[in-house]
Amino acid sequence: xxxxxxxxxxxxxxxxxxxxxxxxxxxxxxxxxxxxxxxxxxxxxxxxxxxxxxxxxxxxxxxxxxxxxxxxxxxxxxxxxxxxxxxxxxxxxxxxxxxxxxxxxxxxxxxxxxxxxxxxxxxxxxxxxxxxxxxxxxxxxxxxxxxxxxxxxxxxxxxxxxxxxxxxxxxxxxxxxxxxxxxxxxxxxxxxxxxxxxxxxxxxxxxxxxxxxxxxxxxxxxxxxxxxxxxxxxxxxxxxxxxxxxxxxxxxxxxxxxxxxxxxxxxxxxxxxxxxxxxxxxxxxxxxxxxxxx
Length: 294
Ligand SMILES: *Cc1c(COP(=O)(O)O)cnc(C)c1O
Known about the structure:
This protein has nine helices and ten strands. By secondary structure, it is of the alpha/beta class. Strand 4, helix 3 and strand 5 (110-114) form a beta-alpha-beta unit. Bound molecules: pyridoxal-5'-phosphate.
C-alpha cells in the first residue's frame, strides 16, 4: 500500500482565459498526497485518527454513500495504521459495488448497508455496537475535522493571499480554513452538493475568525455527483491547459466556478487567490475509459 506523501504537494500557478494580469491564482495540490486518502480527507481525519490511537480503538466506524471519498480515505488510513475500519453505507447493497466501495473493501473495510431512513438517523446496527469502537461523523464533519483542515493553510505562506477558495460539501474544510485565515482574507466556499445547510454547518465549527466567509451556490450542476456533458468536456479542456486533473463531484465544479467568477469580475484587480485542490480523483473511476483524457 502506497505511503502518504505530504512532500508531493506543490503550489501550481494557473492562468484562466480572459483573466486580468493583475489577478494571481495559485493551486494547492493536495490531490498529490495519496490516490485514496485524497486531499482534504487526510487533514480532516487526522485528529479522529489520533483519538483512535489514544483510546486504543479496536475499530473505527463511519458513514457514507456509494461514492464517498471519506469512506475510501478512512479505509486506506485504517490499512496504513493497522486499525480495523467499518463503513455504514446508505441504501441497499447493490448487485455490483461502486468502484469507491470496491476499493474500500479491498483495503479491508467491513461494509454494512442500511436503509436510507436508518442512515438519515445515523443508526448503528445492533451487531456493530461493539466495545472499543470510535465513531466518526459522516464526511468527518465536526470540530476535530475542522481542526485538521485548518492545518492545510500551514502548507503555504498564507499571508500572501487575499482569497482562499475551496469546494464545500459538509463545510468542515471551509470552517477549518476560516479558523486559520487572517482577518483581511475571504474564504470562498463553492457549494458543490447543493447542501442547503452549508453555511450554518460551517459557521457552527468556526471559532474566533475575523476572515469573511462567502458561500456560492451557483455551481452545483444539480447536486451531489450530478454533472453535464459540458462539465466533462470542460474538465478535459482544463487538463489540456493546466495539466491539473479534477474530479467530477467536487474539484471540477470548484475550478469551473473559479474560471467563471474570474471572467465575471467577481474578484477585484490585485486579488491574490489560493485554490485548494482537495483531491477526490478516485471518484472518476466510475466513468468509462476514454471519457476523461487523464
Ligand atoms: C469531501 C470533499 C470535499 C468537501 O469537504 P467538506 O469538508 O465536507 O466540505 C471537497 N473536495 C473533495 C475532493 C472532497 O473529497
